[in-house]
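User: Okay, second chain of the day. Same drill as before: sequence in, structure tokens out.
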Amino acid sequence: MGIQNFPAALQPIIQQGFLEREFETALKSRLGYRLIADREEFSVGIGETLTKTRAGLKPSVTVPLAASTNTNLDNGLISTNWGVEQYTISLNFYAATQDLNMVTSRVGIASQFLQNAATNGEQAARSLDELARNALFAPYFGGNTRVTTTLTAAAPSVEVDDIRGFQTVFSNGVQQAVSATYPLAVTVGLNLYTVVGLTPDAVNVSTAPNGISGQLLLSGNVSIADGTAGSAVQAATASSIVRPASRSTTAGLQATDTLSMGNLLDAVALLRRNAVPLVDGVYNCYLDPVSARQLFSDPDFKQLFQGATSSNPVFRQGMVSDFLGLRFITTTEAYVQTHPSIQNLFVRRPIVCGQGALIEGDFAGMAADDVAPKDSMVNVIDNVAMVTREPIDRLQQIIAQSWYWIGGFCAPSDTTTTPTTVPTATNANYKRAVMIEHIG
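Assistant: Same drill. Structure tokens below.
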């Protein structure tokens, strides 16, 4: 489709590149979460999913080789191998469109044309940021939930608020569905149990963002004391969640449990324990404006900056930038949840991320010649394609302005980093981010 097919009134606008620049400007106003993603190109002709393999480490050797065993062809050594783990990125297609009728919009047609492009760009940016947020948070909710229905007698199953993190276990680096063959160790209440299966609810009543309520099936009976509503349920490989006052569940948060500097330091310490790489020298902390405001009320924070002048950038900007080993990035897309049991309270969730916490796969074929010929109006900006279609209706009046993106996000695991290879590491499957839950 060439420019010559468009009405003469629009050709100067297109030829001067105004449309492309307007779209690009809108896309640069990202909302935050997509920034943490490491981008990888998803090659053409390899299917709709891409499975990548990450090599692990071998345990340290701290015992000297005994001279008496240093014999034969193997010198007394036993061959050992490093472990592997796999994660999968799936391609999906996302798109939206908007029509412009040139006749009914004759007055100010150029500005409306450009405004449509800007609006499409903002929609695309926000959509991809929410996709990145959902993919980032999902595994870091995993393995942390609570009992929702009190048992009337000891039983081998419990109803829980969210079954994410209990559905699969890693075996030789590959995720397997939880079963009697691949069991998962969990703590329900105060005691250890083993999950051997689960059943999602037919009607999802989970209070967690994008959560999945259901029933956990265990290898033995759960006591009434452990199976009481509100009891914490945590997988042995659960992701780390920091809460004020060491609350064990989201429902356990109280009105006084606001964000503190100590919570942020705890999150940084967890990432450092797991040897998570920094992002340009610090970790990224994504939080909403209310969470950011609460820091200025924290006693430790105020004491740290006691006597600071008005020229201090922390107070001049009303927000901290690189501080506490963190880079603070405010976003309006952060999860805000109504408290599960206390009215008029909201649960907020800052998340602290290191390098590699999220991976974005962009399909390489979006701008291929057979998809976007050289004379077509298809511009790829920040890996998002903007399409402007000439009027093809009977009256040659309606122009279509659209965008599309082909790709996906995934949060890779780090199951091969264990206390055997990194002594301070945790047993969490996902280690490159730490979520904080607080009231705000």
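Helices lie at 11-15, 18-28, 109-141, 261-273, 289-295, 299-304, 313-316.

User: Thanks, on to the next one.
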